[in-house]
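Re: beginner question about structure tokens

> Can someone show what the tokenized structure looks like for a real chain? I only ever see the sequence side.

Sure, here's an example I had lying around. Input first:
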Amino acid sequence: MSKQTGTSPKITKADLVLVEQLRTQTAEHNVNNVTRTKAYLEFYLQHPEIHWALLGHMVSRNGGWNMTDLKGEFLTRLLSKKDRVVFFAFLERGNWLIFQDIYPQFLLYKESLKQNKPLFHLCSYLNISIFMETIWNYFWVHQETYILTVALVINEQSYLEKRVVQNPIYQKDVINKFEFILQDLLSFNHILFPYGKRSLAGQTLHQFESLHERVLLGKRLYAVLFKNKERLKKIVEWAKEHPHTGSRKDYWPNIFNNVNEGIPGFAYQTRLKACQLRPRARKIYSPTLENAWKNISQPEAEKGDWFEDNRVCDYLIDDTENIDGEIQNEYCKTLERLELAAIAKKAISILE
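And the corresponding structure tokens:
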């Protein structure tokens, strides 16, 4: 695979019209985390051979929960309003960028099926990497779902690397500033896949700033999602039955509520033990995205193709061993740590 050189292939007027239609359709769904997450699931249900659409849906749900956590019970006590606004902008930019890059690829695939011919030469007109143009053409012939999914993981994480992770503003205001909080304290680094009544599967990311680690996480998440067919069926059923709102009440209504049950002035006491509320304890506040954040318009995505090195193709080898995806105990401990940190912060502010 080599980088694209010279000019893009000539296209017809009909092609140009199609490109504009795809851009318009993408923008219609790229309003906020809820609209994006819904669009991913709808596409997967129509085209279950595109596994990334389900993976993207589930990871995007987690992005929404991270966004609303910033207005929820614990982080409003732990972080200043300014810091929470900056952190939201960071999460929202990444969520927006991924969608505006990947959803046109899905629509191009859909149109290719409709016209019964590959249209992936239009990728360059949608600012999609030559890497993905090559992979889509390969998938069109060979239908290898694993290679397509992992390629999309590589593409999206590489696409974000310079635009978000290495962005000097986010480096200064988010990555460096929140490194301890992100990695060791918050549920930000837990990617949860709910299923059944109250079950969770998933994985944990320990080095967000590492592109290599994020790609490996994507491969592990794919294994957790698709290698256990029985669990996959339950996760899809759960996703269909629980529309994404951004509130963690979506998966654990026994612990979280999108209505704040708190009484101003009352002393805060621990309520959680082993992922259960203590007797008569009120639920943890986890707002919906709609009630937490207003929609924000994003500046245009930065131009440029990330693909420079053939060695990224090494990631396409299926080297994930059996991964059980057990995360519930770890996540429960994180929630308890978060609650204790919020209590400690409150106690310190009273003493100051």
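Each token stands for a local structural state, so reading them left to right follows the chain. Strands lie at 190-195, 199-204, 256-257, 272-273, 276-277, 284-285.
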